[in-house]
Amino acid sequence: MTSRSDFRFFERLRVRWAEVDMQNIVFNAHYLMYFDTAIAGYWRALAIPYHETMVYLGGDFYARKATLEYMASARYDDLIEVGIRTQSIGNSSTVFACAVYRGEQALVSGELVYVFADPSTMKSKPVPQEFRDLLNAYEAGKPMVDVRVGRWNELGDAARKIRSQVFVDEQNIPADMEWDGADDGCVHALARNRFGIPLGTGRMLEHVPGVAKIGRMAVLAPMRGGHIGRAVLDALLQHARERGDREALLHAQLGAAPFYSRAGFVARGAVFEEAGIPHVEMVRSL
User: Fold this and answer.
1) Which domain holds residue 213?
2) I need a surface site. Which of 8, 10, 72, 87 has the fewest CB within 10 A?
Protein backbone atom coordinates (compact mmCIF):
# COMPACT_ATOMS: atom_id res chain seq x y z
CA MET A 1 0.00 0.00 0.00
CA THR A 2 1.41 3.38 -1.00
CA SER A 3 1.15 6.34 1.37
CA ARG A 4 -0.35 9.73 0.62
CA SER A 5 3.11 11.32 0.56
CA ASP A 6 4.04 9.08 -2.40
CA PHE A 7 1.76 11.07 -4.70
CA ARG A 8 2.49 14.40 -6.30
CA PHE A 9 -0.82 14.55 -8.16
CA PHE A 10 -4.33 14.43 -6.67
CA GLU A 11 -7.71 14.83 -8.32
CA ARG A 12 -10.39 16.08 -5.94
CA LEU A 13 -13.88 14.60 -6.39
CA ARG A 14 -17.14 14.57 -4.47
CA VAL A 15 -19.19 11.38 -4.21
CA ARG A 16 -22.48 11.74 -6.08
CA TRP A 17 -25.83 10.20 -5.16
CA ALA A 18 -25.79 7.96 -8.25
CA GLU A 19 -22.51 6.36 -7.11
CA VAL A 20 -23.88 4.96 -3.83
CA ASP A 21 -25.34 1.45 -3.72
CA MET A 22 -27.96 -0.31 -1.58
CA GLN A 23 -25.43 -0.55 1.27
CA ASN A 24 -25.19 3.26 1.31
CA ILE A 25 -21.54 3.18 0.29
CA VAL A 26 -19.85 3.80 -3.05
CA PHE A 27 -20.46 0.85 -5.36
CA ASN A 28 -17.13 -0.94 -5.76
CA ALA A 29 -16.87 -0.57 -9.55
CA HIS A 30 -17.06 3.21 -9.34
CA TYR A 31 -13.54 3.37 -7.97
CA LEU A 32 -12.30 2.41 -11.42
CA MET A 33 -14.20 5.41 -12.77
CA TYR A 34 -12.53 7.57 -10.11
CA PHE A 35 -9.12 6.29 -11.21
CA ASP A 36 -9.93 6.93 -14.86
CA THR A 37 -11.13 10.46 -14.10
CA ALA A 38 -7.93 11.12 -12.16
CA ILE A 39 -5.78 9.78 -15.01
CA ALA A 40 -7.32 12.43 -17.27
CA GLY A 41 -6.35 15.05 -14.69
CA TYR A 42 -2.86 13.57 -14.54
CA TRP A 43 -2.46 14.10 -18.30
CA ARG A 44 -3.53 17.70 -17.78
CA ALA A 45 -0.91 18.11 -15.05
CA LEU A 46 1.64 16.84 -17.56
CA ALA A 47 0.46 19.67 -19.87
CA ILE A 48 -0.46 17.31 -22.67
CA PRO A 49 -3.70 17.54 -24.67
CA TYR A 50 -4.23 13.80 -24.87
CA HIS A 51 -5.41 13.17 -28.44
CA GLU A 52 -2.97 15.60 -30.05
CA THR A 53 -0.14 14.12 -28.02
CA MET A 54 -0.92 10.55 -29.03
CA VAL A 55 -0.92 11.60 -32.70
CA TYR A 56 2.44 13.27 -32.10
CA LEU A 57 3.81 10.10 -30.45
CA GLY A 58 2.42 7.82 -33.16
CA GLY A 59 0.44 5.52 -30.90
CA ASP A 60 -2.02 5.33 -28.03
CA PHE A 61 -2.33 3.80 -24.56
CA TYR A 62 -4.73 0.90 -24.04
CA ALA A 63 -5.84 -0.53 -20.69
CA ARG A 64 -4.30 -3.95 -20.07
CA LYS A 65 -4.97 -4.59 -16.40
CA ALA A 66 -6.64 -2.97 -13.40
CA THR A 67 -6.41 -4.08 -9.78
CA LEU A 68 -8.19 -2.75 -6.71
CA GLU A 69 -7.79 -3.31 -3.00
CA TYR A 70 -10.53 -2.11 -0.66
CA MET A 71 -9.76 -0.95 2.89
CA ALA A 72 -12.72 1.31 3.71
CA SER A 73 -15.75 2.85 2.02
CA ALA A 74 -16.59 6.29 0.74
CA ARG A 75 -20.13 7.54 1.28
CA TYR A 76 -22.48 10.00 -0.36
CA ASP A 77 -21.17 13.60 -0.45
CA ASP A 78 -17.72 12.63 0.82
CA LEU A 79 -14.93 14.81 -0.51
CA ILE A 80 -12.27 12.42 -1.75
CA GLU A 81 -8.88 12.80 -3.40
CA VAL A 82 -7.52 10.36 -5.95
CA GLY A 83 -3.74 10.10 -6.13
CA ILE A 84 -2.00 9.03 -9.34
CA ARG A 85 1.69 8.46 -9.93
CA THR A 86 3.85 6.72 -12.49
CA GLN A 87 5.08 3.57 -10.76
CA SER A 88 7.12 1.96 -13.51
CA ILE A 89 7.71 2.07 -17.26
CA GLY A 90 8.48 -1.13 -19.12
CA ASN A 91 9.22 -1.65 -22.79
CA SER A 92 5.66 -1.07 -24.02
CA SER A 93 3.71 -0.83 -20.76
CA THR A 94 3.33 1.79 -18.05
CA VAL A 95 2.07 1.08 -14.54
CA PHE A 96 0.26 3.80 -12.60
CA ALA A 97 -0.25 3.54 -8.85
CA CYS A 98 -3.64 4.86 -7.71
CA ALA A 99 -5.22 5.49 -4.33
CA VAL A 100 -8.38 7.11 -2.96
CA TYR A 101 -8.19 9.13 0.25
CA ARG A 102 -10.76 10.76 2.51
CA GLY A 103 -8.62 13.21 4.37
CA GLU A 104 -5.67 11.16 5.53
CA GLN A 105 -7.58 7.88 5.48
CA ALA A 106 -6.76 5.51 2.62
CA LEU A 107 -9.95 3.93 1.26
CA VAL A 108 -8.89 2.08 -1.89
CA SER A 109 -5.58 1.45 -3.63
CA GLY A 110 -4.81 -0.07 -6.99
CA GLU A 111 -2.79 -0.20 -10.17
CA LEU A 112 -3.61 0.56 -13.78
CA VAL A 113 -1.48 -1.02 -16.50
CA TYR A 114 -1.54 0.57 -19.96
CA VAL A 115 0.17 -0.71 -23.10
CA PHE A 116 1.38 1.64 -25.82
CA ALA A 117 0.30 0.37 -29.23
CA ASP A 118 -0.23 1.27 -32.85
CA PRO A 119 -3.96 2.18 -33.23
CA SER A 120 -4.13 0.80 -36.77
CA THR A 121 -2.66 -2.66 -36.00
CA MET A 122 -3.33 -2.82 -32.24
CA LYS A 123 0.19 -4.22 -31.84
CA SER A 124 2.30 -3.02 -28.94
CA LYS A 125 5.30 -0.79 -29.54
CA PRO A 126 7.94 0.72 -27.23
CA VAL A 127 6.93 3.65 -25.08
CA PRO A 128 8.64 6.64 -26.78
CA GLN A 129 11.66 8.00 -24.94
CA GLU A 130 10.14 11.49 -25.02
CA PHE A 131 7.15 10.24 -23.06
CA ARG A 132 9.34 8.36 -20.58
CA ASP A 133 11.31 11.54 -19.99
CA LEU A 134 8.08 13.50 -19.52
CA LEU A 135 6.71 11.12 -16.86
CA ASN A 136 10.01 11.00 -15.01
CA ALA A 137 10.37 14.79 -15.12
CA TYR A 138 6.90 15.33 -13.68
CA GLU A 139 7.43 12.87 -10.84
CA ALA A 140 10.76 14.59 -10.11
CA GLY A 141 8.94 17.91 -9.68
CA LYS A 142 10.21 19.60 -12.83
CA PRO A 143 8.09 22.21 -14.69
CA MET A 144 5.91 20.93 -17.50
CA VAL A 145 5.44 24.25 -19.31
CA ASP A 146 7.80 26.84 -20.75
CA VAL A 147 6.47 30.37 -21.29
CA ARG A 148 8.24 32.64 -23.73
CA VAL A 149 7.65 36.38 -23.98
CA GLY A 150 8.28 38.08 -27.30
CA ARG A 151 6.90 39.97 -30.27
CA TRP A 152 4.23 38.97 -32.76
CA ASN A 153 6.75 38.19 -35.50
CA GLU A 154 8.30 35.56 -33.16
CA LEU A 155 5.22 34.05 -31.52
CA GLY A 156 2.34 35.09 -33.75
CA ASP A 157 1.89 31.93 -35.81
CA ALA A 158 1.30 29.73 -32.76
CA ALA A 159 -0.63 32.41 -30.85
CA ARG A 160 -2.94 33.00 -33.82
CA LYS A 161 -3.91 29.32 -33.95
CA ILE A 162 -4.79 29.24 -30.26
CA ARG A 163 -6.79 32.46 -30.38
CA SER A 164 -8.63 31.39 -33.53
CA GLN A 165 -9.62 28.13 -31.88
CA VAL A 166 -10.71 29.72 -28.59
CA PHE A 167 -12.25 33.04 -29.60
CA VAL A 168 -13.40 32.60 -33.20
CA ASP A 169 -14.34 28.91 -33.30
CA GLU A 170 -15.37 28.30 -29.69
CA GLN A 171 -16.79 31.66 -28.58
CA ASN A 172 -18.04 32.77 -32.01
CA ILE A 173 -16.32 36.16 -31.84
CA PRO A 174 -16.18 37.64 -35.36
CA ALA A 175 -12.72 37.30 -36.87
CA ASP A 176 -12.56 41.00 -37.75
CA MET A 177 -13.02 41.85 -34.07
CA GLU A 178 -10.38 39.37 -32.93
CA TRP A 179 -7.73 40.64 -35.33
CA ASP A 180 -7.79 44.31 -34.38
CA GLY A 181 -4.41 45.32 -35.78
CA ALA A 182 -2.83 45.84 -32.35
CA ASP A 183 -0.81 42.64 -32.21
CA ASP A 184 2.31 44.03 -33.88
CA GLY A 185 2.67 46.61 -31.10
CA CYS A 186 2.06 44.20 -28.21
CA VAL A 187 4.23 41.98 -26.09
CA HIS A 188 2.99 38.38 -26.30
CA ALA A 189 3.40 35.34 -24.07
CA LEU A 190 3.19 31.80 -25.38
CA ALA A 191 3.11 28.63 -23.28
CA ARG A 192 4.40 25.38 -24.76
CA ASN A 193 4.65 21.94 -23.21
CA ARG A 194 7.77 19.76 -23.22
CA PHE A 195 6.93 18.50 -26.70
CA GLY A 196 6.79 22.07 -28.01
CA ILE A 197 3.01 22.01 -28.46
CA PRO A 198 1.50 25.54 -27.97
CA LEU A 199 -1.15 25.52 -25.22
CA GLY A 200 -1.91 29.10 -24.20
CA THR A 201 -1.23 32.72 -25.03
CA GLY A 202 -1.87 36.29 -23.98
CA ARG A 203 -0.79 39.79 -24.96
CA MET A 204 0.04 43.09 -23.27
CA LEU A 205 0.16 46.67 -24.47
CA GLU A 206 0.76 50.02 -22.82
CA HIS A 207 -2.62 51.46 -21.87
CA VAL A 208 -1.17 54.73 -20.59
CA PRO A 209 2.38 55.35 -19.32
CA GLY A 210 2.98 53.06 -16.34
CA VAL A 211 -0.18 50.98 -16.89
CA ALA A 212 -0.10 47.65 -18.73
CA LYS A 213 -3.26 46.32 -20.36
CA ILE A 214 -3.45 42.54 -20.63
CA GLY A 215 -5.77 40.85 -23.09
CA ARG A 216 -6.43 38.00 -25.51
CA MET A 217 -5.75 35.46 -22.76
CA ALA A 218 -6.55 32.06 -24.28
CA VAL A 219 -5.87 28.46 -23.26
CA LEU A 220 -6.84 25.39 -25.28
CA ALA A 221 -9.95 23.75 -23.83
CA PRO A 222 -8.37 20.43 -22.74
CA MET A 223 -5.73 22.31 -20.75
CA ARG A 224 -7.99 24.60 -18.75
CA GLY A 225 -7.62 24.07 -15.04
CA GLY A 226 -4.03 22.94 -15.54
CA HIS A 227 -2.38 26.27 -14.52
CA ILE A 228 -1.42 27.15 -18.10
CA GLY A 229 -3.32 30.43 -18.01
CA ARG A 230 -1.70 31.41 -14.71
CA ALA A 231 1.75 30.74 -16.13
CA VAL A 232 1.01 33.01 -19.11
CA LEU A 233 -0.45 35.72 -16.88
CA ASP A 234 2.50 35.61 -14.47
CA ALA A 235 4.96 35.93 -17.36
CA LEU A 236 3.18 39.03 -18.67
CA LEU A 237 3.00 40.60 -15.21
CA GLN A 238 6.69 39.95 -14.65
CA HIS A 239 7.52 41.62 -17.96
CA ALA A 240 5.39 44.62 -16.95
CA ARG A 241 7.30 44.93 -13.67
CA GLU A 242 10.64 44.71 -15.42
CA ARG A 243 9.74 47.57 -17.77
CA GLY A 244 8.64 49.69 -14.81
CA ASP A 245 4.84 49.57 -15.00
CA ARG A 246 3.05 50.32 -11.73
CA GLU A 247 -0.37 48.81 -12.53
CA ALA A 248 -1.99 46.19 -14.75
CA LEU A 249 -5.58 46.16 -15.96
CA LEU A 250 -7.66 43.84 -18.09
CA HIS A 251 -11.20 43.26 -19.26
CA ALA A 252 -12.23 39.88 -17.86
CA GLN A 253 -15.10 37.79 -19.11
CA LEU A 254 -17.36 37.30 -16.09
CA GLY A 255 -16.78 33.56 -16.10
CA ALA A 256 -13.01 34.17 -15.87
CA ALA A 257 -13.18 36.85 -13.15
CA PRO A 258 -12.51 34.36 -10.28
CA PHE A 259 -9.32 33.25 -12.08
CA TYR A 260 -8.04 36.83 -12.14
CA SER A 261 -9.15 37.44 -8.55
CA ARG A 262 -6.91 34.59 -7.45
CA ALA A 263 -4.04 36.38 -9.21
CA GLY A 264 -4.62 39.56 -7.19
CA PHE A 265 -6.90 41.51 -9.55
CA VAL A 266 -9.96 43.37 -8.22
CA ALA A 267 -13.05 44.42 -10.15
CA ARG A 268 -13.58 48.10 -10.92
CA GLY A 269 -16.76 49.57 -12.32
CA ALA A 270 -19.91 48.08 -13.78
CA VAL A 271 -20.31 45.05 -16.00
CA PHE A 272 -20.25 45.83 -19.73
CA GLU A 273 -20.35 43.91 -23.00
CA GLU A 274 -17.54 43.25 -25.44
CA ALA A 275 -18.24 41.12 -28.52
CA GLY A 276 -21.61 40.25 -26.97
CA ILE A 277 -19.98 38.76 -23.85
CA PRO A 278 -20.32 40.30 -20.34
CA HIS A 279 -17.00 41.67 -19.04
CA VAL A 280 -15.73 43.54 -16.03
CA GLU A 281 -12.62 45.70 -15.76
CA MET A 282 -10.12 44.39 -13.22
CA VAL A 283 -6.91 45.96 -11.93
CA ARG A 284 -3.97 45.18 -9.67
CA SER A 285 -0.84 47.00 -8.58
CA LEU A 286 2.58 45.71 -9.57
Assistant:
1) 145-285
2) 72
